[in-house]
Design brief:
heterotetramer; A alpha/beta; B alpha+beta; C alpha/beta; D alpha/beta; C: alpha/beta; Elongation Factor Tu (Ef-tu), domain 3; Rossmann fold; seven-stranded mixed β-sheet; six-stranded antiparallel β-sheet; D: seven-stranded mixed β-sheet; 11 helices; 11 strands; binds flavin-adenine dinucleotide; binds iron/sulfur cluster
Chain lengths: 260, 424, 298, 346
């Protein structure tokens, strides 16, 4: 592929060198990028991918955009992350793990890291720290939310990034999209849902499949958690069930400390 | 005769997760040949402790980005076994269909995007976009079919949303199923072309006698639950999985190792095929025979071919599963769940081999203890010993450093390891 | 029985979708950016010419009105026309690069085609103001919508009595249209400029607009024969208008231009709605009486 | 107005006659926790799916005239030029079978804005012009207050309207097409007794309303109570989720965004229905938000519906269907909010 210069409305559009990096994660978000079969080739023509360990052996450390997946849970990861930050002009945190710690941060809830290690590895020493989001160590220029990220959203974001358009996440909660999809509200069907407080953008992926939202995209700009708590209780769901969901992906950690 | 060499591969590419290869040959003797998993561990088993049962499938999907459906279904099966729920036939068929599509998706990803570049002497699929556009497009077409099918049945190709304990949150439209079936039938030429492509590749000639472990088929090629079997004639019940896996911790790897009758064993497509050859769909068997693949095959590189055979098998089988579904009236979607104390084990064949989830519950259905045994961790020891043997044989044949490294990388890739999975 | 007949609005030439009606929904006429001048760090002046001659000739607007400018795939937003109404479809827009569209616009070269629709909205009644004193008060970007009425007044200068322009900005580097001040003064206009924070280069007045306005209010009786036009940030509105009212300027002779979020400019999207008043239809120019009746207007 | 009466067993025949067209009507989408059926408007494939005795639908039929997301146009980009392509996104007429009076009135109200003299919205109008509307009478639900809003009976805006008289339907016919369709089934002229039964049915419906809103002087009261504390109490509950506007038959506000295609050769402009309760509704470039607080946004929704629209059109923009209150998880309902603003305890 040639790095031909293209114009959009007379404005030159560079094909930026991009690299993908993974930290503590399931690497599913990277895979979502490859899961764009129908549009993969167009997607690849927007970016000059120079480093993508899961998919290619060629690697280069000359890149402008770094897509970082995964949370940080070891000292060597912090070092690697800082190197990436130093190189990249734009650092994009991809997915709930990178943005909030993701499911991985569930281990933090025990407070006792030694117990956690013993539970899984017995007496063998393993190197692992508290799980933190990428933004705990370096400046993050852009977040792509979701567990997993939604490929349609990734495509729009990357196009906007390449064009230099501003990237605006929906500020409203999932309910808005759920209603647009004409779903029956899960509360009516006897299921709990975090849709009213979770940032939209997933097109109500879970509720549209009759799975109540677990808040993977973190709080909407207004997240009336206190009211949702009342709604949960009114519909017969325990505080435990609500907390299970709130703490699942790490996005609501500040609210949780208030609740608990 | 090879005198000396030092091979260090840090963060092997085109595999899921982080692993290193080390080979050190001195005076023709292999001093060291290692497979180290350096992935950061995630402690899923600890995370689950104290969580209600319904969290487990949702959280466990996140163990792996490639086989999230497998983890979800294994988790669901463990819970259902623990609570004494028997899925309805409709649910079982739908789950198997979903499982098949994940197998197809994952095998295709491995065959085309991760393994094929080695045989075509390129570093990744990227150069193939220009040099072999028809190959890339075919790969994309087939993979899209598999992924679309996962969307339709599981709600989402990655971290499924419709699969729950007791059944599904909602069912696909029958019209969606019949259009999937049509697409599968139309995909057969693409599969044939894939087979033909792999026939042009020369697989390295390497063998090491290995014990292969898999689920045991009784009426069909096994994917979900059932007995456990090894090529060394060990047979076990699903809930006795611990005796089959015997996990232990080694210090140079964040993933655990396993052993059974020998110092290591292998799981995966080749293991399934070695143990269940007779249950393959006739067309899949034909493909296997075309590659002279018959049980028990001890060449780990043949795992690629076993995956290819399984691609054919799952597509053929899915067509008949869809027929089965189209013929029936949709009944209940989801059974009620009554938690109870006790242990539940679920064993599943995921693309990379046999996967176990086991949970111990209290009366309220909270998890007291969790255990997940991942195929790649069962394979790690075997990969390690394979590398040693490969280094030995290569050294005696006087291969160059570059060749040895290339072979070793290909060997690891042939297992299609899922490393982040293995250090869940 | 037969199927119901299909009414094809696309096919019909009708009032809903009239080609050549620059304000019909989604009819955007193409225009070319013929020149771009940087006025300050963030504001640029764009000279824009409607491509079609006929459309250019027919494009008429009143001072205070705005157009919607569209860049395909980037966005569409309202901008006050800042040029003389006499120039028809050769318009000037002065635009601050603040967000998505405006920042992209700052990057496009001369010759780029944009979409223009409009004009929309109400205007400053400059005709009605003939024979009177006019006070034009602008803060920051507020000078942009004042420029069209200024042009209109200049072109008919003798019809008006005293004209005062009071213009304030935060810093001297943020002052807009500096190159025109001399020309305005030549037309016998009192131009008072004030900046909030003076720097070395600034030897003019320092402080808030109200400082100058206070003097002006004291200088003559505003209750009889004076009109005021006020444009600026919300906070300025309140202070300036309060002062004018205290000086007995009748509320119906104070005109303000309100800014609200707008997506359609045609009274449909509700974004500019205050109660049920659409700032795009009933505004952006309001007399102060109407503003007093709009809760939360400024 | 022309009236007819026909036997209910003729309904299927009428359906079949109409079924050469697409038919949208109330269908059952499932049951809630208490096994009560949940209805919504959707395309009807067979007569048996059509549930004319439905209580109320979750969503209004708005999506057929104002889809939640609609592509307004696409752009093709050339080297130094571009073209815009429009489509009003309607290609066939649709029969709406079984609308209650409130929804018909809702459309009539939308017409006032969207099919107005200045700048009519062609996307809306195109869909409106391709509707054939069959109304059906309803029985008041515990949450609907259409009578208070003057929307409990539809005077225009339909082709025919059915009122159930036991085994028969009493039909009001407003269009020639409707007359043709009715002529295709067995019907008769109504007699005195039918008139009486029709009036009885109307009477009975009126008596069955349990939910009311006092609209006396409401515009003035809303102005007087602009700073009332109760708004804050409601604001604390509001989730700013936009559900109320989404299900409302008359909320029409929207936002626009444009996307460039991945190949950079084209673009599209998308309209998305919005809600004035969403946090950034009144936020302008540069970040200033005219309504940053939940209660202020909530209040403005009421101001637009119950004050501003009344000033402009002498009727409220609320039809009293009660959907927003039913869907609001926080339990914010119009009758309660208005009562509280009036200072009444409920
Ligand atoms: C009647 C009127 C006249 C205006 N005249 C001028 C002018 O002459 N010069 C000038 O620099 N600015 C003017 N503005 C403000 C200008 O419209 C905004 O700066 C512009 O919308 C910002 O768009 P953006 O895409 O760069 O910003 P973003 O913040 O990225 O906004 C995204 C979208 O939101 C909408 N939006 C955001 N803010 C506003 C806003 N304040 N008004 C309307 N829509 C908004 C637009 O649709 C915009 O495309 C005027 C606004 C109004 C209402
Ligand atoms: S299902 Fe969830 S997202 Fe959808 S409306 Fe109900 S609460 Fe909101
Ligand atoms: S509905 Fe909630 S959990 Fe599901 S994808 Fe959207 S934000 Fe994530
Ligand atoms: S009033 Fe209810 S439905 Fe409307 S935004 Fe507030 S919480 Fe959502």
């Amino acid at each position: 592929m040639s790095a031909d210069k293209r114009l959009y409305l007379g404005v030159p559009v560079e094909r930026p060198k991009a690299a993908f990096f993974d930290f503590t994660s399931c690497e599913g978000c990277q895979l979502q990028m490859l899961n764009n079969e129908a549009t993969l080739l167009d997607f690849l023509s927007l970016l000059d991918i120079v480093n993508f360990r899961e998919a290619m052996s060629e690697r280069s450390d000359d890149y402008e955009i770094a897509f970082v997946e995964g949370s940080i849970s070891r000292a060597d990861e912090v070092e690697r992350l800082k190197k990436i930050r130093a190189q990249a002009k734009i650092l994009v945190a991809v997915g709930s793990c990178a943005c909030f710690g993701g499911v991985n941060q569930l281990k933090n809830r025990f407070g006792d890291l030694d117990w956690v290690k013993r539970e899984v590895y017995g007496s063998n020493p393993v190197d692992s720290t508290e799980v933190r989001p990428v933004s705990a160590f370096v400046t993050v220029d852009l977040k792509i939310y979701g567990c997993p990220v939604k490929k349609e959203e990734v495509e729009v974001i990357v196009t906007n990034l390449v064009l230099g358009k501003s990237i605006v996440h929906p500020s409203y909660p999932v309910c808005m999209e759920c209603k647009a999809n004409h779903n029956i509200c899960l509360f009516d069907l006897g299921e709990p849902c975090l849709g009213p407080i979770t940032r939209a953008g997933c097109d109500s992926w879970c509720p549209s499949n009759r799975m109540g939202c677990w808040g993977c995209r973190g709080p909407a700009e207004v997240a009336n958690v206190e009211q949702l708590r009342e709604i949960m209780l009114k519909h017969g769901f325990s505080e435990e069930e609500m907390i299970d969901r709130l703490e699942c992906f790490g996005g609501f950690s500040t609210y949780l400390s208030e609740l608990k | 005769m090879k005198i000396s060499c030092d091979i260090k591969v840090d963060h092997l590419t085109r595999v899921e997760g982080h692993g290193n290869i080390r080979i050190k040959i001195r005076n023709g003797r292999v001093e060291q040949a290692r497979w180290d998993v350096v992935e950061t561990p995630r402690f899923f088993e600890a995370m689950l402790v104290g969580k209600k049962w319904n969290n487990a499938p949702w959280i466990c999907a996140r163990i792996c980005g490639i086989c999230s459906i497998g983890h979800t279904l294994a988790s669901i099966r463990a819970i259902e076994n623990g609570f004494g729920i028997k899925p309805s036939e409709q649910t079982s068929v739908l789950r198997l269909l979903l499982k098949h599509m994940e197998t197809l998706q994952s095998h295709l990803l491995h065959l085309y995007f991760l393994a094929a570049p080695d045989f075509l002497n390129v570093g990744s699929v990227m150069p193939l976009i220009e040099s072999h556009p028809e190959v890339v497009k075919r790969a994309a077409r087939l993979k899209q079919l598999a992924n679309d099918a996962c969307d339709v049945i599981g709600g989402r190709r990655l971290h499924p949303t419709r699969t729950v304990v007791g059944g599904f949150t909602m069912l696909p439209e029958k019209s969606q199923l019949s259009s999937l079936k049509k697409r599968m039938q139309a995909a057969v030429p693409d599969l044939t072309a894939t087979v033909e492509l792999f026939q042009t590749f020369t697989l390295p000639d390497f063998e090491r006698e290995t014990e292969f472990v898999s689920l045991k088929g009784d009426e069909r090629y096994p994917f979900i639950g059932g007995g456990l079997i090894s090529t060394d004639q060990v047979e076990m019940e699903e809930h006795d999985y611990l005796k089959m896996t015997n996990e232990f911790v080694v210090d140079h790897s964040t993933s655990k190792w396993s052993r059974l009758s020998r110092q290591s064993f292998a799981v995966g497509a080749l293991a399934r095929l070695n143990n269940n050859f007779s249950f393959l769909h006739p067309e899949a068997r034909e493909v296997a025979e075309g590659f002279s693949l018959a049980p028990v095959n001890n060449n780990p590189f043949m795992n690629n071919i076993a995956q290819l055979v399984e691609c054919v098998h799952v597509v053929m089988d899915s067509i008949s599963l869809i027929d089965n579904l189209l013929d029936r009236e949709w009944t209940e979607v989801r059974q009620p769940v009554c938690p109870r104390a006790g242990l539940g084990v679920g064993a599943l064949e995921v693309p990379r081999g046999i996967l176990y989830h086991a949970y111990e519950f209290d009366n309220a259905g909270r998890i007291i203890k969790a255990d997940c045994v991942i195929p790649t961790s069962q394979n790690n020891a075997n990969i390690h010993y394979d590398i040693f043997e490969l280094a030995q044989q290569s050294a005696s044949r006087g291969k160059s450093d570059g060749e040895i490294q290339h072979l070793a990388e290909m060997l690891v890739r042939a297992y299609d390891p899922c490393i982040s999975c293995s250090v869940h | 029985m037969d199927k119901l007949p299909f009414v094809d609005l696309m096919a019909e030439k009708n009032r809903y979708h009239r080609r050549g009606d620059l304000s019909a929904f989604e009819y955007t006429c193409q225009a070319e950016i013929t020149n771009v001048y940087s006025l300050t760090e963030t504001e640029k002046l764009y000279q824009i010419q409607l491509i079609d001659r006929e459309e250019r000739r027919r494009f008429t607007f009143k001072p205070g009105q705005f157009v919607m400018l569209e860049l395909p795939g980037i966005g569409e937003a309202p901008f006050s026309i800042s040029s003389s109404p006499a120039r028809h479809g050769n318009i000037e827009l002065c635009i601050r690069a603040v967000g998505n569209l405006t920042k992209f616009l700052a990057r496009v070269p001369r010759g780029t085609r944009v979409g223009i629709s409009g004009p929309f909205g109400t205007s400053f009644p400059v005709k009605e103001m003939r024979g009177s004193d006019v006070l034009l008060i602008g803060g920051g970007l507020g000078l942009i919508p004042l420029r069209a009425p200024i042009f209109a007044i200049l072109e008919n200068r003798s019809a008006y009595k005293d004209i005062d322009i009071i213009y304030g900005a935060r810093k001297s580097s943020e002052l807009l249209f500096t190159y025109q001040y001399d020309m305005w003064r030549q037309f016998d206009i009192n131009l008072d400029i004030i900046v909030e924070q003076a720097d070395e280069d600034w030897d003019g007045a320092e402080g808030l607009i109200t400082r100058i306005l206070e003097k002006r209010c004291a200088a003559s009786d505003l209750s009889k024969n004076t009109y005021a036009i006020v444009c600026g940030p919300p906070i300025m509105f309140r202070f300036v208008c309060d002062m004018l009212i205290k000086a007995h300027l009748p509320v119906r002779r104070i005109f303000v231009s309100l800014e609200r979020r707008m997506h359609c400019g045609r009274g449909k999207c509700c974004r500019c709605n205050i109660g049920s008043t659409y700032t795009c239809l009933e505004g952006p120019v309001f007399d102060y009486w109407s503003v007093m009746n709009l809760k939360e207007a400024i | 107005m022309i009236f007819r009466v026909f036997d209910k067993d003729q309904l299927q025949r009428l359906y079949d006659v109409l079924a050469v067209n697409h038919i949208v009507g109330p269908v059952c989408k499932g049951v809630n926790q208490n096994s009560a059926p949940l209805y919504d408007f959707d395309f009807v494939k067979t007569f048996s799916e059509l549930k004319l005795d439905y209580s109320s639908t979750i969503h209004s039929l708005k999506r057929f005239v104002l889809p939640p997301r609609e592509t307004l146009c696409t752009f093709e980009l050339g080297d130094d030029n571009w073209r815009k392509r429009l489509d009003f996104n309607v290609h066939e007429p649709i029969v709406f079978f079984g609308l209650h009076a409130c929804d018909i009135n809702g459309l009539n109200k939308l017409d006032k804005v969207l099919n107005s003299v200045v700048y009519p919205d062609p996307y809306y109008v195109a869909k409106r012009k391709n509707m054939f509307i069959i109304g059906v009478n309803c029985s008041p639900q515990p949450f609907c207050f259409c009578r208070s809003m003057g929307s409990d009976s539809a005077l225009h805006g339909f082709d025919m309207f059915f009122t159930s008289l036991g085994d028969e339907y009493f039909v009001e016919i407003l269009s020639a097409t409707a007359f043709e369709y009715i002529s295709a089934i067995k019907s008769r002229e109504p007699n005195e007794r039918d008139h009486a039964r029709f009036k009885e049915a109307s009477e009975e419906k009126i008596n069955n309303f349990t939910c009311h809103v006092d609209t006396t002087d409401l515009t003035k009261i809303l102005d007087l109570e602009f700073q009332a504390e109760v708004w804050k109490t409601w604001g604390e509950r509001c989730l700013s989720c936009g559900t109320c506007a989404s299900v409302c038959p008359t909320c029409y506000c929207y936002g626009i965004h444009e996307n460039v295609n991945l190949d950079l050769q084209g673009a599209e402009k998308i309209k998305q229905l919005y809600s004035c309760n969403l946090i950034d509704f009144a936020q302008v470039a540069g970040g200033h938000n005219f309504r940053p607080e939940s209660h202020v946004r909530l209040k403005y929704r009421y101001y637009h519906k119950h004050r501003g629209f009344v000033e402009a059109f002498e009727e409220s923009l609320c039809v009293g269907c009660g959907r927003c209150g039913e869907s609001c998880l926080a339990g914010i309902t119009v009758p309660e909010v208005i009562a509280s603003v009036r200072g009444l305890e409920r």
